[in-house]
Amino acid sequence: MTWLHWYLLVALLLFCIGLYGLVQRRSLVAMLIALELMLAAVSLNVVAITSLSGRSSSVGQVVAIILIGVAAAEGAVALSLFVAIQREVQSINVENLSELKG
Amino acid sequence: MNWTGFLFGASAALALVGALFAVGLKNIFHNILGFALSLVGVAGLFLTLGSDFLAIVLLLVYVGALGIAMVYAVMLSQPLDAPRAPRSLPKVAGAALLAAAVAMALWAVLHRAHFPPQAGALEVTPQFTGFRLLSDYVLAFELISVLLVVAMIGAVMVARKDRSAAARKAPPGSP
Fold first, then answer.
1. Which of A43, B88, B101, B167 is deepest in the core (most CB within 10 A)?
2. Is A89's Cβ below 8 Å from some Cβ in B?
3. Which residues of chain A make contact with B123, given a CB cutoff of 8 A?
4. What is the fold, at CATH topology level, of the domain defined by A3-95?
5. Contact B115 A25 (CB under 8 A)
């Protein structure tokens, strides 16, 4: 196990914890938290690989910055959607959002 | 044990414990605190990789902005003392099984992967990042700024109270 493998192992565990939370939780905000954890794990992965292997480490920095920007945009839109859903349905529990079930 | 190894261990432990708090605890505020803790750990991991600028940006955006926004969304939405419906055990077990299976599959690939050592100069300072962003990756840089503007305007539009519709629906005098 090299250093890079340790970093990738931490990112892997972080990603899978996030995946578990995304599937298991029912509150939309909790699901968003899990999703952001997964995104953070991905950017950790990219930065670790490009800093410890290969030859262009600045590409990883650029990718990570763009990932953080996308995560921020996604979080803003998601949270405002949650507020709108709460106003409409009086709940942000996903099990109550079954209007489109058919 | 050297200094970088210690920082790596502490940050990794912080990231994983925070992530477990963020996912496992029942109270949504505790989840947000665990999320912030976990991102502090990830920022520490970035520090051990030499990317101090990324660590700062991560702290600012995730812990500072996103954490606060989440707290606001929670306060605007669910009542904290509302009773929660019990979670059925098979669903929780299924979620844990899925996560464990994905972890096993990724680890099976990862533990025998071979990575060549770092060959070029380590270019992780903000100078190099800024140079790259404004030369080779200028399209991505511009796109991300457009995306942020669109997301911000969209968020305001979606979360805005539609006063005209509310005024039409509600009888006069009611709050």
1. A43
2. no
3. 56-58, 61
4. Helix Hairpins (1.10.287)
5. no
